Amino acid sequence: MVKLKSQMTEGELLKIYRDMVLIREFEERTAEMYSRGKVTGFCHLYIGEEAVAVGAMSALHPDDYVISSYRDHGHCLIKGTSPKEVMAELFGRATGTCKGKGGSMHLFDPKTNFFGGYAIVAGGIPITLGVGYAIKYRKEDKVVASFFGDGATNAGAFYESLNMSKIWSLPIIFICENNFFGISTAVSWASATTDIFKKAEAHGIPTAKVNGMDVIAVREAIKNAAKYAREGKGPYFVEALTYRFRGHSMSDPADYRIPREEKIWKDRDPIPNFARKLIEEGISDADGLRAIKEEVEQEVEQAVKFADSSPWPEAIELMKDIYSEKEGEER
Ligand SMILES: Cc1ncc(C[n+]2csc(CCOP(=O)(O)OP(=O)(O)O)c2C)c(N)n1
C-alpha cells in the first residue's frame, strides 16, 4: 500500500478530508431544509459520491473549468463557491450564486470557473465541448472537467461530444460518476454495455476505470487525465464507480435497491475509510478529525442562517439577466 504521506503534504490530505466532510454536512443540512420547506423544487443530493468531486478537483488547477449535472452542490462547493452562496441559491434568495433564480439544479459561478449544473440529462456535455474549444482557441493553459452520470452516457449528445472532442483534440476530461442507477433504472437495463468507459474507447479516447469511493485513486486518475489534456493530446475519459446513499432526488425513497447491495456500498463510505487511513498514518487522530467536523458544521450552520436571513429577489429581477439578441439592451 502506498502511504498517503508519500503523495501529499499533511495539509493537503486534511483539506481533502475536510472537503468531503463539507459536502456531506452541506447535503445533510440541505435534506433537513428541504423537509422544512426552505428548499423547494427538485433537489438531488451527492451523499456517498463525495470522493469523486473532491479527488478530481484536488488534481485540477484552481482556474480550470468544471461543469456538472443537476447533482451539482458538491462540485460547486469544492470548486470554491462559499457554502453561504450555494445555500442561499437553494433557498431561492437574492444572495445566491444566481441571485436565487437558478436553484439546486442550476448553480453557476463565473468567479470560480464553475460553469454550471444542468437539469437536462447530458445537457452539460456539449457545453463542455464549447468550453474545451474556447480553451484551445484562446491558447489557455487550462482544461475543462465535465461530471455526469451513467444515464447521460446513453444520450446522443454524449456521443456527438466524444466524437467532436477527439476530432478537435480538445482539453476535456469526461468524468462519468457511475452510481449504477439513472433514477430507478439500473445501468444494465438501459446501457448496451455496463463498462461505460468502453463507449469512449470506441472513439479512440484514452480511458481509466477507477474506484470512486477512494479519493486518492480518483485524484491519481484525474491527475493523469489532466496532464494528458493539458499537454494538448486531446480528451480523456474517466469512469468512477460510486454509489449514492440516498434516493435519486428528495422525493425518491429508493425502494428499488437491494438492502444487501446498499450495505456493501455504505461499508465503502469514502469519509470514514479515509479518516481511518489518516489516523493509521498518524496524520491526525480522532480528536483532530472531530474538530474538523465541528468546524465544518459551524460553517454550514452559518450558511443556513445566511440563506434564511437573506432577502428574496425583487420582482423586477424577473425581467433581468434574460438572453437578448440585441446587445446591451435591458429588457
Ligand atoms: C433529457 C432528459 N431526459 C430525462 C430526464 C429525467 N431525468 C432526470 S435525472 C435522470 C437520470 C439520470 O441518471 P444519471 O445520468 O445516471 O445521473 P445520476 O442521477 O445517477 O447522477 C432522468 C432520466 C431529464 N432530466 N433530461
What's the gist of this structure?
This protein is an alpha/beta fold. The protein has helices at residues 10-35, 50-58, 73-79, 83-90, 124-138, 156-167, 187-190, 197-201, 215-230, 259-266, 270-280, 286-309; strands spanning 65-67, 144-149, 172-178, 181-182, 185-186, 207-211, 236-241. It has one domain (4-319): 3-Layer(aba) Sandwich (Rossmann fold).
3D structure, described in words:
This protein is an alpha/beta fold. The chain has a single domain (about 5-320), classed as Thiamin diphosphate (ThDP)-binding fold, Pyr/PP domains (Rossmann fold), CATH 3.40.50.970. About 45% of the residues lie in helices and about 10% in strands. The protein is built from 12 helices and 7 strands. It has helices at about 10-35, 50-60, 75-80, 85-90, 125-140, 155-165, 185-190, 195-200, 215-230, 260-265, 270-280, 285-310, and strands at about 65, 145-150, 170-180, 180, 185, 205-210, 235-240. The strands form 2 sheets. A 5-stranded parallel β-sheet has the order 1-2-3-7-6, with helices on both faces. It has a two-stranded antiparallel sheet with strand order 4-5. β4 (about 180) and β5 form a beta hairpin.
